[in-house]
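Input record, target 12 of the design panel.
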């Protein structure tokens, strides 16, 4: 009988020891869970910041696209101005040629008047 009681006491001792170990493990898991929850909150905050930054970049991209369109429109306008300048230059060249021809005609008339 004494052996059975000794065995029962040992079993109860092991069971109590296991309960204490289980309680310690449970506390540690709770602490780890709390740390994970804190990290999750930090990641959520960081994620929200990234979302805000993404929105800012999207806004900047839209502004840059608008500026690109404006620059393209300005390029078209400069192209039109360049065409007008080419036309004016061509017209001016035609006028210079016509003026030179008129000078030749006037010189010819002057020579005829000088001969008479």
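The sequence produced for target 12 reads:
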């Amino acid at each position: 009988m004494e052996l059975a009681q000794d065995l029962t006491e040992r079993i109860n001792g092991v069971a109590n020891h296991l309960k204490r170990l289980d309680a310690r493990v449970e506390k540690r898991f709770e602490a780890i869970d709390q740390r994970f929850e804190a990290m999750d909150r930090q990641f959520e905050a960081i994620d929200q910041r990234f979302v805000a930054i993404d929105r800012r970049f999207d806004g900047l991209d839209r502004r840059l696209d608008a500026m690109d369109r404006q620059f393209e429109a300005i390029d078209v306008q400069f192209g039109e101005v360049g065409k007008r300048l080419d036309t004016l230059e061509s017209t001016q060249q035609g006028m210079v040629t016509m003026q030179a021809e008129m000078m030749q005609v006037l010189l010819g008339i002057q020579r005829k008047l000088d001969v008479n």
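Residues 6 and 21 are 22 Å apart (CA to CA).
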